[in-house]
Specification:
- This protein is of the alpha/beta class and 436 residues long.
- The chain contains 17 helices and 14 strands.
- The strands form two sheets. Strands 3-2-1-4-5-6-7-8 form an eight-stranded mixed β-sheet, sandwiched between helices.
- α6 links the parallel β5 and β6.
- α1 crosses α3 and α9 crosses α11.
- The longest helix is centred in the middle third of the chain and has 32 residues.
- The structure holds nicotinamide-adenine-dinucleotide (NAD).
- The site of nicotinamide-adenine-dinucleotide has 27 residues, from α1 and α5.
């Protein structure tokens, strides 16, 4: 099957490379000429484990190619996947201008029947808008071309994106006609071998399923973070609580790890978007609204934790920060808790020196006023305190003796709970963590 993906970012590139690996003929298109030129030279625009090998192999074997010519990509394809960004507006609403622009490009290029699929996370009703934009373009050109519109939300996790795409827990396909259903079922046929459940539904339900999934996961995080805070007040241990409830199959163990609050390119914007369009629909999502508030409070609590560790003031002090990406195994810093925490500490007068195994390039753009270090130990050198913000593996077994000699004072705020409080305190650190 010939397909194209418009928008070669995180989702678009992984989607394109994985479908090529399944044997499809894939063109990935993007307006970013630099990105496409880099990809043609084998340079990945993002860090994602295994992606470079996957792309290289599929390009070499002739199943995957890149272009800035969206029209040509559309004409060569039966299925056109939209993987454009859907950033948040100030009020939490979703900026659909990229999706609209792609939809109109597709419409103008179409020379025959296409299935137009939104893979971007889009508010309920967007597929209808896509249909209207395409129809409008055709009307303007005074022509009629048959097409279907479908929703196929993506659930991959950054850092584990390829595994998630090739062995997903489920695939959700929303269509309003049988032809598109048959084509999309056939596109995902390679997954039938591993018996991946496929949820076939209508377009609106598929669109909303993605928000329900992210809102639920974000709820679990805010839930355990609130209990972590309560644990601190009453002297309980949140890890034991997470285990004590997580072993109940009705609850499940995942997403019950306390920390600085959720971040990344999806949960913050998708929860705000869902809250926004639910309010507009006259059916506010009270739980989701609370989840967003609790998360903002959690970022703030982390800042206060570091300040308290530094005897109530970080003014003029240097804080070493380990981890900048919103989670390990990615260089993505979009809405990373590290950014909120660092900005909060800087507002209170702190100087920041930081290290991240992959996000240094991003940090240079997003946080130009912080010092970037060579490695974890360099981030400790002459710092007044150390804050561990992202739980990269390489931070889990630091040479603590060395850390202690490098720090001006042995103060550690472990905002991901990667160390144990008792040995840390025995090793002579003033150590704070979350909910223990
Ligand atoms: N990143 C994730 O983990 C993830 C997971 C699931 C769903 N999503 C959703 O997928 C969508 C894309 O997210 P992403 O993280 O891949 O974004 P991204 O910013 O990494 O990539 C988007 C790409 O689209 C390109 N683009 C913008 N306008 C274009 C146009 N008119 N024509 C062609 N290309 C254009 C950009 O240049 C960019 O390369 C969003 O809706 C997001 O919410 C993301």
């Amino acid at each position: 099957m010939n397909i194209c993906v418009i928008g070669t970012g995180y989702v678009g590139l992984v989607t394109g490379a994985c479908f090529a690996e399944f044997g499809c003929q894939v063109v990935c298109a993007d307006v970013d000429e630099e990105k496409i030129a880099g990809l043609e030279r084998g340079v990945m625009p993002i860090y994602e484990p295994g992606l470079d090998d996957l792309v290289e192999r599929n390009v070499r074997q002739g199943r995957l190619s890149f272009t800035t010519d969206t029209a040509e990509a559309v004409r060569a394809s039966l299925v056109v996947l939209i993987a454009a960004p859907t950033p948040p507006g100030e009020d939490g609403s979703t900026d659909l201008s990229y999706v609209e622009s792609v939809a109109r490009d597709i419409a103008r290029a179409m020379d025959g029947y296409k299935v137009i699929v939104t893979k971007s996370t889009v508010p309920v009703g967007t597929a209808e808008k896509v249909r209207a934009w395409v129809t409008e373009e055709h009307a303007r050109e005074n022509r009629q071309v048959r097409f279907s519109v479908a929703s196929n939300p993506e659930f991959l996790r950054e850092g584990a994106a390829i595994g998630d795409f090739m062995r997903p827990d489920r695939v959700v396909i929303g269509t309003d006609d049988e032809e598109a259903t048959a084509i999309l079922k056939s596109l995902y046929r390679p997954l039938y071998l591993i018996e991946t459940p496929v949820v076939l539904t209508n377009v609106v339900t598929a669109e909303l399923t993605k928000y329900a999934a992210n809102a639920f996961l974000a709820t679990k995080i805010s839930f355990i973070n609130e209990f972590a805070n309560l644990c601190e007040a009453v002297g309980a241990d949140v890890h034991h609580i997470a285990r004590g409830i997580g072993l109940d199959n009705r609850i499940g163990k995942k997403f019950l790890h306390p920390g600085p609050g959720f971040g990344g390119s999806c949960f913050p914007k998708d929860t705000r978007s869902a809250a926004h369009f639910a309010r507009e629909a006259g059916t506010p999502l009270e739980i989701v609204e609370s989840v967003i508030r609790v998360n903002a409070i959690q970022h703030e609590r982390m800042i206060e934790k570091v300040v308290a560790l530094c005897d109530g003031s970080v003014a003029g002090k240097t804080i070493g920060v380990l981890g900048l990406s919103f989670k390990p195994e990615t260089d993505d810093m979009r809405d990373s808790p590290a950014v909120a925490i660092i900005r909060g500490l800087m507002e209170r007068g702190a100087k920041i020196q930081a290290y991240d195994p992959q996000a240094m390039e991003e940090a240079r753009k997003l946080l130009p006023d912080i010092a970037l270090c060579e490695d974890a130990y360099d981030a400790c050198r002459d710092a007044d305190a150390l804050a561990i913000v992202t739980e990269w593996n390489q931070f889990r077994m630091l040479d603590l003796g060395r850390v202690k000699t490098l720090l001006r004072q042995p103060l550690i705020a472990d905002l991901r709970n990667i160390y144990d409080p008792v040995p840390m305190r025995e090793a002579g650190f003033a150590y704070v963590c979350v909910g223990r």
